[in-house]
Every structure is written in C-alpha cells, then in structure tokens.
User: Which sequence fits this backbone?
C-alpha cells in the first residue's frame, strides 16, 4: 500500500486527536493496517492487541471530515466493547447494525461530511422502525430482531427474495442483514462442501447454501453462518 494512504489515515488521526483527544488516545494505542480485503474499515483482534484495518481506496474517496468520523466510529466500537459482544448474540450482522446505530449517535454532524454513509436514526426512525435515542446496542438489537421476526412471519420467510416484497417495516432492515450481505474473499471446499468465506466488519462468515455470480462477483444466496470474530488477515484456509 502507498505511503500516501498511511499518511492520509495519520492526518485524519491527528485531527481526531485535536478535536476529541479521548478517542485519539484509543487510536494511538492500536495497530494500523491497510487492506483491500475489506470494503470499508473495521477494528479486529490482533493477538493480544487490537488493530484498525482500512481499505485505502475507500478511505481516499472520503471527504476530510468523514475520514475523521470513520476513525471515531471505529474507536467507538472499541470504547463500547462491541468486539466482546459477538458471542452473546445469534445474528452477528444484525448486531453490527445495532452497534452502528448506537455509536453513530455520538458522532457530531460536523464530522459527517458529504460522503458519510453511516447508519443513523433519523427523526426517531431507522428503516421505518421507531427507535429511542441513545438506548444502546442491546435495545436496538432486540427491537430490530423483533421487526425481522414479524417480517419473516408475515412474508413466509422468503429467504433472500426480499426484492419481491415492496412494503413492510422489516424490508429495509432485511436488506442490511439478509443473505446478500457477505463480501466474498475466498472460495473453496471443506469436507466436500463448497464455501465462501467473507468479511463483514471484521467478522468472518461462511455461506453454504447456494452461490451465484452477479456482475462478475460472487454473491451469497444462502444462509450466512458466523465463523468467529477474528482478524481480517486470519481467515479460514480453504482447499481447492
């Protein structure tokens, strides 16, 4: 990765330190890595430490303030101990959504520049679901899971065919946590089963129920099953 990319991350980090030293100190204390193996940015375990992983191409496309917001976003995941929550919740993708909804409330509108695409509760709602402000990850997880359960019940659990459903509170949330969420990084066979191993915000997942190609990229059309909360460079080794 280019030196310029590291310098841009460092520059945004210095701005974070000046504006909000508490989160800047978190940033100083962890390892940093540039990788195109993830779509955006994430924090992950790095042996006994933690690390920030940033896709340089993604980061370079962001405006100056949004870069700072992204770094604060990742530090908030650490400060609120979200990495330790994954074993406590069944739906890992929904947990990521709930955690993002919590922490993005602590990022000022000043930092959310024109390229900001974070998940936000706007006017007390997210994807048509009414949510209280600053209620916490667990509350958001439970409320969104309830909406998903109702959605699946009312629509016969269509398993990936949410594109055929044009209304319903759960549709927007389903799009975020549904079966097309996996980012493919490796394909292979384990014990005769074809697998995709992907990364969602630092969480490795495997897909075992159907694969199709869309615009030259593998897209899962099956059920996402978490493999574990591990660093983005430690994936499951696949046979060919």
Assistant:
């Amino acid at each position: 990765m280019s030196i310029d990319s590291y310098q841009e991350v460092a520059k945004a980090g210095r701005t974070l330190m000046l504006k909000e030293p508490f989160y800047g100190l978190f940033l100083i204390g962890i390892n940093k890595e540039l990788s195109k193996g993830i779509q955006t940015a994430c924090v992950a375990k790095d042996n006994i430490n933690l690390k920030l992983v940033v896709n340089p191409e993604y980061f370079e496309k962001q405006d100056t303030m949004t870069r700072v917001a992204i770094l604060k976003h990742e530090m908030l995941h650490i400060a609120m101990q979200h990495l330790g929550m994954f074993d406590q919740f069944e739906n890992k993708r929904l947990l990521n959504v709930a955690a993002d909804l919590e922490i993005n409330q602590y990022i000022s509108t000043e930092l959310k520049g024109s390229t900001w695409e974070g998940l936000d509760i706007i006017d007390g709602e997210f994807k048509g679901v009414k949510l209280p402000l600053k209620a916490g990850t667990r509350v958001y997880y439970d409320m969104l899971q309830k909406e998903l359960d109702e959605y699946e019940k009312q629509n016969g659990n269509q398993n990936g065919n949410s594109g055929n459903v044009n209304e319903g509170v759960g549709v927007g949330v389903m799009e975020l946590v549904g079966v097309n969420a996996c980012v493919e990084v490796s394909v292979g066979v384990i014990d005769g089963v074809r697998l995709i191993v992907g990364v969602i915000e630092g969480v490795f997942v495997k897909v075992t129920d159907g694969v199709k190609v869309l615009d030259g990229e593998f897209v899962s059309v099956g059920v996402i099953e978490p493999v574990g909360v591990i660093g983005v460079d430690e994936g499951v080794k696949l046979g060919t």
